Amino acid sequence: MDRSPTVAIVGAGMSGLCMGVRLRQAGIESFTIHEKAGAVGGTWRENTYPGLSCDVPSRFYSYSFAPNPGWSRQFSPGPEICSYFERITDRYGLRAHIRFDSEIVSAHHDGERWQLQSAGGTKEAADFLISATGVLHHPRYPDIAGLDSFQGAAFHSARWDHSVPLAGKRIGVLGTGSTGVQITCALAGLAGRYSLFQRTAQWILPAPNRRYSRMTKALLRRSPELNRLAYRAAQEWMEHTLGEAVVHPGWQRRAIAAVCRRNLARVKDPVLRRKLTPDYEPMCKRLVMSGDFYEALEQPNVEVVTEGIERVEPQGIRTLDGTLHELDVLVLATGFDAHAYMRPMDLVGPQGQTLADIWPDEPHGYLTVALPGFPNLFCLMGPHSPVGNQSLISVAETQSAYALWFIERFRAGALASVAPTAAASARFNAELRAAMPDTVWTTGCNSWYIGADGLPSLWPWTPRRHREMLARPSLRDFDVIGAPPAPGVAAPAPAAATS
Ligand code: NAP
Questions:
Q1: Distance from C-alpha of 185 to C-alpha of 292, rounded to nearest angstrom
Q2: HSE-up of 466 (CA within 13 Å, CB side)?
């Protein structure tokens, strides 16, 4: 028996595209990628702020099956990354599968299939639902009195208003995460006066952003082996340094911490240095990579404001010491709600259970990809995915190969419906909790990593362990519903672990 599985993918960002490529490579054409916007690229389409670049080396922030010889820099700019996803969409024939302006608002499992509904009222049924809705998607706005009263231009970093002139203006930026730091490097020299409002100092890893020469690009273009080798080298480097440092106390953690401390010591002005000195361990918050942040702050037109904010007034920001910092432009680089996951999509399992029912405090799942009670649902970048300073593309590849393994078994008639058991999910989450104390994220700081349960919503082991744990799906951990294997039908071999 051979059945053609219908697959609905929600989101045409990096991970949704990855799933599409995997399905096509497996010869499955009966899939639709629903994208609520009019273009692919996800976070790289939505974020257009000045200075936007990837803080994972571009060599590694690429699909392993499509390394890009043409990256312009070690950490390539956002528009270049967006163009890469556009090219992948065309090269792998995905465009015909994408339904743009199709926001899926609800998905209900009726006991046999997923019934999806879009914001426009279109209905569709699918055997498999793949959630590829991203992690850093919903902008988080600060709860500061008077924000609406500001008379200048104010916007979130992910909603940049490009009609607002910046040169020579008094620019205020709220937030010192990766975004605030990148914006600062791009705008501090352009602004008439630049005020960075810092609630918590950040550790900065000095990462110079080297430009690749024409010769390097030509060489990698001519030699696909070398190009793949460059990908592997960048992966090995990232996984054996930062990948280890964040999850085990050891030499990698000590070495990276020492580099950050030495970098901070380069700030000459002792008052500024004191303001920029964090009171927690490097990497506890997501480590910020920047080769020129401190230099940007040392310019005479720049101030780092560490006084608490009392309120926003029509003319600017009033801090608790009574000072009014007059501004023309206010940028809220205040991050995202990283814990919303698939929401606000209304997801309902066959027994009527919702995400609110299974996630009373924080999102939890099974092996970062599946949820008990929700059959034939696979999440890319699901709860506790290894997102800490690693290439999310590599993670999406592992997760899509895992989902494909089940889709292929469905195609072979070996199963109709699978969902991880509650017991397997509970066991996995107990192991996660037990591993957390070794991680740097629990050493005493506040960050977007920490969920409402007080624990980091991250993978507490190495990226390699994630690949190993997902390489061989264990059906013992699943409620397998429906069709038993048809006589004579051999189950397909598991998809190879990727990257
Ligand atoms: P973030 O790391 O969550 O930083 C938000 C910043 O806003 C923090 O400095 C925070 O201060 C501050 N903030 C929030 N609410 C505030 C309030 N009410 N008053 C004052 N300050 C407030 O957000 P992000 O910088 O947008 O970065 C999020 C993640 O996106 C990064 O960690 C990274 O994973 C990703 N990112 C990646 C790249 C890339 O190159 N790949 C680039 C940008 C972002 P506290 O620290 O005190 O909370």
A1: 7
A2: 34
